[in-house]
Amino acid sequence: MDLDRSVPVWPQVAADLRRRLDAGEWAPGERFPGTVTLTAEYRVTQSTVQKAVVQLRKEGRLRTVLGAGSYVMD
C-alpha cells in the first residue's frame, strides 16, 4: 500500500485494515495481527498502528484483551 505522507498516515492505515476486515482476511473471533507485525508491514511507527487499531476498536470491529492482543469482532 502506498501511503500519502503529506497527510496523517494512521487514518490511511485504518482504512486499509477496515478494507481487509471487510474482505474477510481475518475471521470473526480470530486474533488480529499485533502492532509489531503491522508496523513492519506498513512501514510506519507503532504509534501509527496503535491509533488505527484504537479507531477500529471504537467502531466495534476489534476487541482488545490486555496481555492477549486484539480479536476480530463478529
Automatic annotation (TrEMBL):
<protein>
    <submittedName>
        <fullName>GntR family transcriptional regulator</fullName>
    </submittedName>
</protein>
<keyword id="KW-0238">DNA-binding</keyword>
<keyword id="KW-0804">Transcription</keyword>
<dbReference type="InterPro" id="IPR000524">
    <property type="entry name" value="Tscrpt_reg_HTH_GntR"/>
</dbReference>
<dbReference type="InterPro" id="IPR036390">
    <property type="entry name" value="WH_DNA-bd_sf"/>
</dbReference>
<dbReference type="InterPro" id="IPR036388">
    <property type="entry name" value="WH-like_DNA-bd_sf"/>
</dbReference>
<feature type="domain" description="HTH gntR-type">
    <location>
        <begin position="7"/>
        <end position="74"/>
    </location>
</feature>
<dbReference type="InterPro" id="IPR050679">
    <property type="entry name" value="Bact_HTH_transcr_reg"/>
</dbReference>
<keyword id="KW-0805">Transcription regulation</keyword>
<dbReference type="Pfam" id="PF00392">
    <property type="entry name" value="GntR"/>
</dbReference>
